[in-house]
Amino acid sequence: MRKKALIITYYWPPAGGPGVQRWLKFVKYLPDFNIDPIVYIPSNPSYPLVDDTLLDDVPEHVTIIKQAINEPYKFASLLSKKRSKTVSKGIISEEKKQSLIERLLLFVRGNFFIPDARVGWVKPSVQYLQTYISDYNIETVITTGPPHSLHLIGLHLQKQLHVNWIADFRDPWTTIGYHKQLKLTKKASLKHKTLEKQVLQAANQIIVTSDVTKQEFQLITDKPISVITNGYDVNHVQSPDLDSKFTMAHIGSLLSKRNPEVLWQVLKELITEHSDFATDFELHFVGAVSENVLKSIYNLGLSDYVNEHGYVSHNEAVVFQKKSQLLILIEIDSDETRCIIPGKLFEYMVSERPILALGPKASDVEQIIKETNTGRYFYYNDHESLKSTILEYYNQYKTGVLKSHAIGLQKYSRKSLTKKLSELI
């Protein structure tokens, strides 16, 4: 017997970036497991990134329902269009470099819109969906955040209709890295924690993307928590020729605090000490890069080796992943980021290019890279081993044998992950 599942999400094509991919792929494969997804999205969203090519991935026969949303970013742009757009992307300047307008935007965002700037969508969504759920006999409602205000929609619907509610956390709530930068008052901080606890204790089932987040949430709730990571899907992008240069590419945003100066210093030393490396090396940034990162690179004299491509479509990003000699993955060096598993990791893993990752100790990313044999993971104080590994990869490039040799990737395929989700529904 087929079931229906109502999926409440903010990010949906033509939204770009990693947040849209998770549920786009779940929706693609759920019908294979006798579940018909119905997707509820805003009719007039304010997406910081747009990728029209993702519209081609929306299943032809999926039911999509929409409701208007009022968002403060449109009004904030009257103060500063540039700063409101970067804040909505999550690009936050170092505190000592923040302008008065950026400080004001962050304070208002953190204290007047709790849990986030989409909280105004909660009430009209609950009113609309109550009738829809009853009319179409929907038993399961799934909310996915961030934005975590969408979980409040699930909370109200469960109370009123007693539906089976699954809360999917793509990122943590109160412990996510940027939370401390929102200039929260004690009252606002307490409200965030109270709402988080209410959601975690009320949902019938909780889904997280990492083991670290599961451990964190288990301290707050005794509700069942399942780990379903992000994953990779079959793509139809023709494999390009490998770059002739020794290219290292980072795909995705490089925020202010995601700035591994140890890596830039190592690259500077290799360029200085090895003339052939200096001739062959290129560094590619595909996505938004903070001024802080670019300044660090400039100060070390590496700017001539950098190629900035800005935000590109998902298909173009896949091309960069497949043609680059080495793929860079960087996370902030903090205990709070141990649970963050960038969606691009899984596409990196099937690109057959080695991954060079830097991040905190005991992270989920470190474990996944080790178990799949897809690259090397370093801490921010691993200067010498990082340097020797890049030189080792460079020598493999020179002899034409640089390639990753992955194992056990199948469990991270989107279809395998959707099967796990279907069992929860």
Give a structural overview.
Pfam families: Glyco_trans_1_4 (PF13692). Keywords: Transferase. It comes from Corallibacter vietnamensis. This is Glycosyltransferase family 4 protein. The protein is an alpha/beta fold and 425 residues long. It folds into 3 domains: 3-70 and 115-232 and 414-424, Rossmann fold (3-Layer(aba) Sandwich), CATH 3.40.50; 73-112, no CATH class; 246-398, 3-Layer(aba) Sandwich (Rossmann fold), CATH 3.40.50. The protein has helices at 21-29, 73-79, 81-89, 100-112, 122-135, 149-161, 186-202, 211-217, 261-273, 275-280, 291-299, 314-323, 344-349, 364-372, 383-398, 414-424; strands at 3-8, 35-42, 63-67, 140-145, 164-169, 205-208, 225-227, 246-251, 281-286, 306-308, 326-330, 355-358, 375-378. The strands form 2 sheets. Strands 3-2-1-4-5-6-7 form a 7-stranded parallel sheet, with helices on one face. It has a 6-stranded parallel sheet with strand order 10-9-8-11-12-13, with helices on both faces. Helix 5 (122-135) packs across helix 6 (149-161). It starts with a strand and ends with a helix.
Please provide the ordered H/E string of secondary-structure elements: EHEEHHHHEHEHEHEEHHEHEHEHEHEHH
Which spans of ≥5 residues are poorly predicted at pLDDT below 50? 75-93
Q: Just name the CATH architecture of the largest domain.
A: 3-Layer(aba) Sandwich
Structure classification:
alpha/beta
Distance between the termini: 13 Å
Q: For the largest sheet, list the strands in their spatial order.
A: 3-2-1-4-5-6-7
Question: How many strand segments?
Answer: 13
Summarize model confidence as the mean pLDDT.
90
What's the helix count? 16
- CATH C-level name of the largest domain: Alpha Beta
Protein name: Glycosyltransferase family 4 protein
Pfam families: Glyco_trans_1_4
Keywords: Transferase
